[in-house]
């Protein structure tokens, strides 16, 4: 037990384990950049006809979440694309009337640097959301929104929501955008409360999952992109077991048949938005078919969290779970990787992240 707690204490200093300091990380970014993001939206009003949200890995999932939120208020279309897809698709709408948000913690991600340069060539306005203010992307983008902490998932969402609040000021969407802006600004305190006792639950849940070699991760609505991230770039990357993502509302369209022969292990992210009822039906089905279902329910945080912003709290709770799961499986250096960061599938000397 003492050894476990020593490793957890060490994990608190890890870049990966941002959940341990997420309230301070969010507060720091908001203090430094919230007004800048809103003003960027205001100065873009009337000039922007298309928004692109571009990133890779966890940043791509973050921007998928951002699109879900932005669609509620934006008067112009927003597309979210993996970085190389922006280049390969050659979108006709990528021109001087477009603004492109590109997220990369390092600011050196091979595919996102390529997307930035392509967007610049097409005449679009580029905004780099990066953790490293002296990186390639920070140097080459038109606008830089820097942060130097581990809130890699949350900050691109917060930045684009605040941008949208400025963009729609004075329009019919202003009231809802203001509610979202207020919700983002309240996040540090919401996160502080939600994570106050996260360690106790995380250890218990991680021990329950210790025998699992595969995990189905489900979410719907705004939590679907987070479920994708947790499966693809958290569980497999950090716990190093198999993981499959499915939209909770799509589980009945094929995947449910697997439970006729397999007893699944599930992690389900349950929101408070309109997708909740369908997700609850999926949970009930999986439990009825004798599967183990671990649910993280955003309703546990009270009424103060905007339904579209629940992923920004659930992300940190899943981090706590994964930290304990990794340590209990003997993975104690959370920032080290076996392949990532060692030129795996990279060219030109690009490194992860």
Summarize the structure.
This protein has 13 helices and 9 strands.
Write the layout of secondary structure elements.
Blueprint: H1 2-11, H2 22-44, E1 50-55, H3 58-70, E2 78-82, H4 83-89, E3 98-104, H5 110-121, E4 125-130, H6 136-140, E5 143-146, H7 154-167, H8 174-185, H9 187-194, H10 198-208, E6 214-219, H11 224-239, E7 242-247, E8 265-270, H12 276-288, E9 292-297, H13 311-328
Parallel strand pairs: 1-2, 1-3, 3-4, 4-5, 6-7, 6-8, 8-9
Helix pairs in contact: 1-13, 2-7, 2-9, 3-7, 3-11, 4-5, 7-8, 9-13, 10-13, 11-13
Strand order of the biggest β-sheet: 2-1-3-4-5
Q: Structural class, from secondary structure content?
A: alpha/beta
CATH architecture of the largest domain: 3-Layer(aba) Sandwich
> How many helices?
13
H/E topology pattern: HHEHEHEHEHEHHHHEHEEHEH
| Rg measurement, Å | 20 Å
Q: How many discrete domains? A: 2
Q: Which fold does the CATH topology of the largest domain refer to?
A: Rossmann fold
Low-confidence stretches: none
User: Averaged pLDDT, please?
Assistant: 92
**Assembly form of the protein:** single chain
Annotated CATH homologous superfamily of the largest domain: Glucose-6-phosphate isomerase like protein, domain 1
């Amino acid at each position: 037990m003492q050894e476990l707690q020593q490793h957890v204490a060490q994990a608190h200093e890890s870049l990966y384990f941002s959940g341990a300091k997420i309230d301070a990380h969010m507060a720091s970014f908001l203090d430094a950049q919230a007004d800048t993001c809103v003003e960027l939206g205001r100065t873009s009003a009337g000039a922007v006809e298309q928004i692109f949200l571009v990133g890779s890995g966890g940043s791509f999932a973050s921007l998928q979440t951002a699109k879900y939120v932005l669609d509620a208020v934006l008067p112009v279309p927003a597309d979210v694309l993996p970085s190389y897809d922006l280049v390969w698709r050659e979108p006709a709408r990528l021109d001087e009337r477009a603004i492109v948000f590109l997220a990369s913690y390092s600011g050196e991600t091979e595919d996102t640097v390529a997307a930035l340069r392509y967007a610049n060539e097409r005449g679009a306005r580029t905004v780099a959301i990066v953790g490293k203010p002296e990186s390639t992307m920070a140097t080459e983008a038109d606008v830089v929104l820097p942060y130097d902490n581990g809130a890699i998932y949350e900050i691109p969402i917060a930045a684009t929501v605040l941008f949208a609040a400025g963009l729609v000021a004075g329009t019919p969407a202003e009231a809802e955008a203001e509610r979202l802006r207020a919700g983002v600004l309240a996040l540090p305190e919401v996160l502080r409360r939600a994570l106050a006792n996260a360690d106790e639950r995380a250890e218990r849940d991680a021990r329950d999952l210790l025998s699992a070699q595969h995990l189905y991760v489900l979410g719907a609505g705004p939590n679907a992109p987070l479920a994708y991230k947790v499966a693809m770039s958290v569980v497999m990357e950090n716990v190093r077991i198999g993981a499959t993502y499915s939209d909770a509302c799509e589980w009945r369209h094929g995947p449910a048949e697997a439970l006729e022969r397999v007893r699944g292990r599930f992690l389900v992210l349950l929101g408070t938005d309109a997708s909740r009822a369908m997700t609850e039906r999926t949970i009930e089905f999986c439990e009825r078919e004798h599967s183990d279902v671990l649910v993280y329910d955003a309703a546990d945080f009270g009424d103060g969290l905007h339904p579209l912003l629940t992923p920004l709290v659930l992300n940190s709770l899943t981090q706590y779970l994964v930290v304990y799961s990794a340590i209990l499986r003997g993975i104690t250096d959370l920032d080290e990787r076996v392949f990532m960061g060692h030129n795996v599938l990279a060219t030109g000397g690009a490194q992860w992240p």
